[in-house]
Amino acid sequence: MTNSSSSGQIDFNLWVYRLIAYVIDSIITGVVASIIYYAILLPSLTPKYYNVFIGNYYGSAPIWAFWLLYPLILGIIQIIYFVILEVYWGATLGKRILGMQVQLTKGGKVTIDKSFIRNISKILWPLVIIDWLIAILTPGPDKRQKFTDRIAGTTVVQIKQVFQLNALTTPSTPPTPPPPPPPT
Fold it and tell me: How far apart are CA 110 and CA 101, in angstroms?
């Protein structure tokens, strides 16, 4: 694999790997966030009842609270998940599966404050898209860094090649011919 930090072009394979890893991690955090969301949501779905002492209806949260609650829970869970796993394990589960690791740009293990800075954009999904777009459209000296990686002084490196993305479109060896027919 080429070192994208020294070449003039962005290594789009690494960015595709990062996207796949992010999808894997989002599924994991999405399940946890859904469980927490519905644990909070179900008690508020009880029928309304009238409190005679106060003279008001209780038992149901306003509808806007449900629309804002899940993204908030998901963002908090994602930040906690990414920071803890990157600091103590070097990578999230998705990055581990795809053979990637988060490091400081000077080498070494990422610290909790650096990991928090690089993952702050995960609080809301539009910020993640903006973070990645800025990184791809305005690459810095290290082409592997997203925008918040540049601020934190971190980068994602490929530590092992899991599979090659273009292996399906360009075969490395020609196909073997079929065996000859049996003699008659």
Answer: 10
- Inter-axis angle of helices 63-89 and 12-44, nearest 10: 130
Domain membership flag for residue 7: no
Under 8 Å between Cβ of 47 and 59: yes
What range defines the domain where residue 119 resides? 20-28+72-163
Distance of CA 116 to the CA centre of its chain: 14
In this prediction the pTM is 0.74
Contact 89, 138 (CB under 8 A): no
* Average pLDDT of the chain to the nearest whole number: 81
pLDDT in tens, 75-131: 999 999 999 999 999 999 999 999 999 999 998 999 999 999 999 999 998 999 999
Cα–Cα nearest to 122, from 158, 157, 72, 87: 72
Structural domain count of the chain = 1
Residue 178 lies in a domain: no
How far is it, in rounded angstroms, from Cα 29 to Cα 72?
A: 12
Q: Is residue 85 domain-resident?
A: yes
Asked if the structure places residue 104 within a domain, the reply is yes
Cα dihedral sign for 127, 95, 146, 84? Answer: positive
Q: Using CA atoms, how far apart are residues 138 and 146, in angstroms rounded to an integer? A: 10
